[in-house]
Specification:
7 helices; 196 residues; 7 strands; single chain; 7-stranded mixed β-sheet; Rossmann fold; alpha/beta
Length: 196
């Protein structure tokens, strides 16, 4: 019985990721595999041009941000940072309000040509929406990863938007992690093959 439950869980997780939706800035549908490849190529190109990748998210998504910033830097050779240092978050939350804890950091540090990866399971967290808007204002390329309801506002703010249609945090969060690992692993494959 337990193994059947686990098998069902894994099958559902695979289904959530495989049936994910991707779109571009204009809202046009993009095959999710093509979106993953495009994200990898854009990150590689940004790095080659001297730019950085910033990751922003709350809670479990913040954990994904830390994990990915480390892996992208160490394993992918991509300059990456997660903007979730506790001291900075509490300072900015106290001084400007929690809705500005990421946008203020991007105002300070982001430059045109950088990439900002915004992660929110609900796609409705105001601090993540503000981060996406600040990134756009600074001339950054924006990737969004969201879930839950299809009309979430984050889903329309990125140059590439990945949406996983599920209402459970576990499936959405693990799905986002899988997508970002796929971007990294594909990037490493290109590097090993000597592709630009």
């Amino acid at each position: 019985m337990a193994s059947d439950s686990f098998g069902h869980y894994v099958a559902k997780l695979v289904s959530v990721v495989e049936s994910g939706h991707a779109s571009d800035r204009a809202g046009a549908d993009v095959a999710i595999g093509d979106a993953v490849e495009r994200m990898g190529r854009l990150m590689h190109a940004a790095h080659q041009a001297g730019h950085r990748v910033f990751f922003v998210g709350n809670g479990g998504s913040a954990g994904i941000c830390s994990h990915m910033a480390t892996d992208y830097s160490k394993n992918g050779g991509i300059r990456s940072l997660a903007l979730n240092d506790g001291s900075v978050l509490t300072c900015l939350g106290n001084d400007y309000g929690y809705e500005h804890v990421f946008s203020k950091q991007l105002e300070w540090h982001a430059e045109a040509g950088d990439i900002v990866v915004t992660i929110s399971s609900s796609g409705r967290s105001q601090n993540i929406l503000n981060a996406a808007n600040m990134a756009r204002e600074k001339g950054c390329t924006v990737f969004t990863l969201s879930g839950f309801k299809p009309d979430n506002p984050l889903r329309s703010l990125g140059d590439i938007n990945i949406y996983l249609a599920n209402l459970e945090y576990g499936f959405v969060e693990v799905g986002h992690l899988a997508v970002l690992h796929a971007v990294l692993d594909i990037h490493l494959g290109w590097q090993k093959a000597g592709a630009a």
